[in-house]
């Protein structure tokens, strides 16, 4: 009788199935920073949006430029922004930003600091925590 219980318990344990949903989130969020090593004029939010669209167009053509990207926050002092893109466009956006090399004929670089399917995850960064 004890052997029967153990066999049933083992059978119940064997039916456990773990499910992982990939790309279940509709959007991905990126915290990025634009680096302009030679200083000069800083882009406003409209110019930053145009820079992102032109980076997408340069690498992925008109199809890439049509990718819906939203700038949720932008700090002109630090040149930091939080971008929102549909999940299927994350790789296109990330690659276009990474390969961008100039802004108004000046060298520049986008740094992707964080990425997450959850906006709340970008609210704080433990690496920047000062105690």
TrEMBL record:
It comes from the Eukaryota. GO terms for molecular function: ribonuclease P RNA binding. InterPro entries: Pop5/Rpp14/Rnp2-like, Rnp2-like_sf. Coiled coil: none annotated. This is RPP14 protein. Keywords: tRNA processing. One of its GO terms (cellular component) is multimeric ribonuclease P complex. GO terms for biological process: tRNA 5'-leader removal. The keyword tRNA processing applies. The keyword tRNA processing applies. Belongs to the eukaryotic/archaeal RNase P protein component 2 family.
